[in-house]
Design a protein that fits this description.
Blueprint (H helix, E strand, L loop, with lengths): L1 E4 L3 E10 L4 E4 L2 E7 L6 E4 L2 E2 L4 E3 L1 E3 L10 E2 L4 E2 L26 E2 L17 H6 L2 H4 L6 E2 L6 E5 L2 E12 L5 E4 L5 E4 L4 E7 L4 H8 L7 E3 L5 E4 L4 E5 L4 E4 L7 E6 L7 E8 L5 E5 L7 H7 L1 E5 L4 E5 L3 E6 L2 E4 L9 E5 L9 E5 L4 E7 L2
Parallel strand pairs: 1-3, 2-4, 3-5, 4-6, 4-7, 5-8, 7-9, 8-10, 11-18
Antiparallel strand pairs: 12-13, 13-14, 14-17, 14-21, 15-16, 16-17, 18-19, 19-20, 20-28, 21-24, 22-23, 23-24, 25-26, 26-27, 27-31, 28-31, 29-30, 30-31
């Protein structure tokens, strides 16, 4: 390993400081775009990093001073957990999966969790599998190499969640299931991994949507699917985190059934064959179009996995959201509005429409 004993400032303006393989920078100050090869990253020790620098494919070793205004690029690693800034998003530091993307499906970052932000390490996924919930039950969580979601099969059920965030925390190690089937993992290495329920067969959904001239959809970081429809309309869907194995062969594709809560309201599911040729069924209920906005503007928010929603604004609202989200013509505001509308689904109960700050509208079928 080449050792560079530095005293001057390594400063690049509009350029990159690309290091030779197995380089060690020991001492001095560095600034700019600092990167190395992923296979043999450079190690920085006794170095001061200047603000506005960007670090990629380098290892932060002993006695490195990191300012708050520094950008973390892919492949950055730390030899000491204490040097990782608390609360900073780290999923972008992990390398991307090396498989091709699924044509027609727009994913957030598909990070490879066999890697880690710590050096040395057996990977974040390995650390998750060391948690008592997995060790004590002989469960093994795997990451799908194409879709990037975590997968756990406990026949006849298969659970899938999509990792969307990695941060350093000070909380105790463990697994927590939050509302709307969000799962929070905290490893014994002090990393928090947040996940959202994941669609298990996106290609099967695309095939089913082709009958409606839909050729793509987006998986959002909040776990919802955004499926385009007619001009000015899209469907908001949140897949259930589990699929159930079916006993016999059946026709695959979208299946439409009735909601258990609301007369005249549909609940969709997807029937598909998995990579072992087994037939499985996964519910894909409707979802609040802007859940983060709802949580920030309303109180007592509860989002169930089958589309049932309750929250308090001027009063308490309780019902099923519609799949369809339409773009309104009203000027944008900074509030969430709820307007009464006539019975929209024929159950004899007046309903309401949610008007989001960007003027998108979504019906809430009131359940009494």
């Amino acid at each position: 390993r080449t050792v560079l004993k530095t005293s001057p400032v390594w400063k690049q303006v509009g350029l990159s400081l690309t290091l030779a393989e197995n380089t060690r920078i020991d001492g001095g100050t560095v600034q700019g775009e600092i990167s190395d090869e992923p296979e043999a990253p450079a190690i920085l020790t006794n170095v001061k990093i200047k603000s506005e620098s960007r670090l990629s494919n380098v290892i932060i070793g002993d006695n490195v001073q990191l300012p708050k205004k520094v950008m973390f690029g892919e492949g950055l690693r730390f030899t000491h957990h204490a040097d990782i800034p608390t609360g900073v998003e780290l999923i972008g530091v992990l390398p991307d999966l090396l498989t091709d993307e699924v044509e027609g499906v727009n994913y957030p970052k598909r990070a490879d969790f066999s890697a880690d932000v710590l050096e040395p390490s057996d990977g974040i996924l390995y650390a998750i599998n060391q948690l008592p919930d997995f060790k004590n039950n002989a469960w093994v969580l795997n990451q799908d190499a194409e879709l990037s979601h975590f997968e756990l099969t406990i026949e006849p059920l298969r659970f899938s969640v999509l990792p969307v965030s990695v941060k350093k925390v000070k909380d105790s190690a463990g697994l927590t299931v939050q509302d709307a089937q969000r799962v929070r993992f905290v490893t014994n290495t002090g990393l928090e991994v947040l996940t959202q329920p994941a669609l298990q067969a996106p290609s099967a959904l695309l095939s089913a949507l082709a009958a409606f001239d839909v050729s793509e959809f987006t998986v959002q970081a909040n776990g919802n699917l955004q499926i385009p429809a007619a001009e000015g309309i899209w469907f908001s869907v949140r897949p259930d985190w589990l699929s159930t194995e079916l006993d016999a062969e059946t026709e695959t594709g979208l299946k439409i059934g009735e909601s258990p809560y609301e007369n005249g309201f549909i609940l969709a599911s997807l029937v598909f064959t998995d990579n072992q040729g087994k037939y499985r069924k996964q519910l894909i209920p409707p979802a609040i179009a802007q859940p983060d906005m709802l949580h920030s503007l309303a109180k007592n928010v509860s989002l169930k996995t089958d589309g049932l929603v309750s929250f308090k604004l001027d009063k308490t609202y309780h019902g099923m959201v519609d799949y369809a989200v339409t773009q309104g013509e009203e000027a944008m505001t900074d509030t969430l509005q709820v307007e009464s509308i006539p019975d929209a689904n024929g159950d004899g109960i007046a309903d309401v429409v949610l008007i989001y700050p960007n003027s998108e509208r979504q019906i809430l079928f009131v359940v009494e």
